[in-house]
Amino acid sequence: MVAFGKKLKDRQIQEWQGYYINYKLMKKRVRQYAQQIQLGTQDRRHVLKDFSRMLDNQIEKIVLFLLEQQGILASRISKLGEQHDALLQEPEIHKMSELREAYREVGQDLLKLLFFVEMNAIGLRKILKKFDKRFGYRFTDYYVKTRANHPYSQLQQVFKHVGIGAVVGALSRNLHELQNRQGSYLSIYDQPTLPLQDPVIDSIKAAVDRLTNSTNFLNFLGQHALIMQEELPTPTEEHVDDERYHFMSLILNLANTFLYMVNTYIIVPTADDYSMSLGAAPTVCGIVIGAMAVAQVFSSVYFSAWSNRSYFRPLVFSSITLFLGNILYALAYDARSLWILLIGRVFCGLGSARAVNRRYISDCVPLKIRMQASAAFVSASALGMACGPALAGILQTDFKIYKLTFNQNTLPGWVMGVAWLIYLIWLWITFKEPSHEPVENENHVNNHQPNDEVNNALEQGLKQPLLITSDDKGDEEADQDYDDSEEASEESRLPATSIRSAYRLLTPSVKVQLLIYFMLKYVMEILLSESSVITTYYFNWSTSRVALFLACLGLTVLPVNIVVGSYISNMFEDRQILLVSEIMVCIGVLLSFHLIIPYSVPQYICSGLLLFVSAEVLEGVNLSLLSRVMSSRLSRGTYNGGLLSTEAGTIARVIADATITLAGYLGESNLLNVTLLPSLFISIASILATCYTYNSLY
Predict the structure, then answer these.
(1) 3-state SS, one letter per residue, for 346-406
(2) Which residue spans of the chain are classified as CATH 1.20.1250.20?
(3) How far is the C-alpha of 477 from the C-alpha of 482, rounded, in Å?
(4) Which fold would CATH assign to domain 4-185+195-224?
(5) Is 400 helix (H, G, I), strand (E, B) or coil?
(6) Running DSSP on this structure, what letter comes out for residue 433?
(7) Which CATH architecture has domain 247-432+506-693?
(8) 444-501, pLDDT tens digit by residue?
(9) Which of 68, 107, 121, 256 is the most exposed, fewest CB within 10 Å of its CB?
(10) Are 661 and 272 in contact (CB under 8 A)?
């Protein structure tokens, strides 16, 4: 990794050198301002005014050049259009081929322009971060709000990029017509869902999508997975991604994610019955369910480290461990041993390869489809969460083969054991291990690289917009400002090497969001894990009814994310949704208490549904924010952001399951209220922490 200033200098398009943001000058000016204020030779108001004027000049220079280049591209497309019209009258195959290549050349030049905007966007965002951090002032908020909402705003013109959209539309339409001359009279407007099979258009569309940085369902789900990536990947890295990518291997990782979530929740409806059949109290189900989470705390770390060297071997180990764990879980019934049951669940937790699944998507899936893969990861998890209890509800039978019992308690273990065995065979036959060779550092690339290398670089789109939206208000804490300083040592930009060093990279707002993640996982685990005990005690529900209730809760995950990702997040700021969701979770907990009136089924279902749905909304928004504000040093390595969030959630589940078992000693009649009290305290604490942290920031 190199400092942004050097990266900007090395990757500039030489003929456009004078039109880039003067990042070095602005960084120097920020240092001068700091010295002047410290010496008392300059006041803050003058500094803000002078720096605003300097930014305005820099942005105006960029925007005017952008408009000039758009005009040149439009003129070229217009001239090509005249040639296209002439060819329609007298079609000639070789001339059509030449015309198509001419349109593609325009597309490559448009990619250059998009890359130009990208570099300037990141430079602007970083200098604003640097200014805010140096002076402790929310200048970014002031500058963006005053400039973006003005009718003559340069920022607004770039953010809406109407000209770029028009150029993309013209290129797409003409290339589509040249590609489909065999008797077709349909245009792209008649077939909007039909993709244009042209790599140039695909690259442009990917770049424009990232330029807009719009919040939609796909992006929302992708960030839900917390699969982090570098702010500005190099062309070499993207080329390596394409070489390492193998579609069937990605499917196998998603299948592993799905099966593991099924394995986690398939025992929840019957865990209390299984515990009682072995002579234990029904509330021991907390330990039975939580044993898997305890082991996952440790397995997440060694799987994350193992994935630095291999993906295939960890997945094989995971499959074998889960196969053995499920077989032990099933055999515990005939052995009449609670210890074998717990050991089986520990083995299942030791086979948790979710860190490998995340890492494979982050490291081996090309950038252009990484968001789709991340969304598929979340969808597979949600589907597994719903299918687990549903499958438990179906396995309502009782028979023996020799001395082995097959009933509602043991069948989840037998079924999942067979599933993991089949998966292991599939994995062994079809998985392709990607190469783990070190990539040559981009510093060794010649600054004057040829045009084809530049064009490859241009396919890297914008992760951050030129206009810093309200969703990015926490960004100034994200990268640890020394990360983009040219004076920073190379060591200061390396990935974290331990949990302690990773923790030191967390800013106050990130710590609060990890607390929120802990809270919502704790609350959800209490609701799900004690559901069979609570519903049996109060309503005398059968296993099938409990399974149906849990399956219905699981099925709400994707619809809720669709609504939030496609609509709500476009109407409100993420931090507003975050706070409201926390309050709704707290209300759901309060409504779940059994106080004076008799506890009823409608009260339990409505409060549980409110709590679960609110927690799901909260999880999606929280992880979306977390993926943007976490340090870039946590985007790779063993101790990455995904591992930290996984550990926070897993520890919450362990404590919640232990709370259920300990509360069981007070009697089943007190179980509900006793387990809800910590949930209430933690949810209130997270609300207060959120209000305090963001009020102090804003």
Answers:
(1) HHHHHCCCHHHHHHHHHHHCCHHHHHHHHHHHHHHHHHHHHHHHHHHHHCCCCEEECCEEE
(2) 247-432+506-693
(3) 11
(4) Methane Monooxygenase Hydroxylase; Chain G, domain 1 (1.20.58)
(5) strand
(6) P
(7) Up-down Bundle (1.20)
(8) 333 433 344 333 433 333 333 333 333 343 444 444 443 444 444 444 456 777 777 7
(9) 68
(10) no
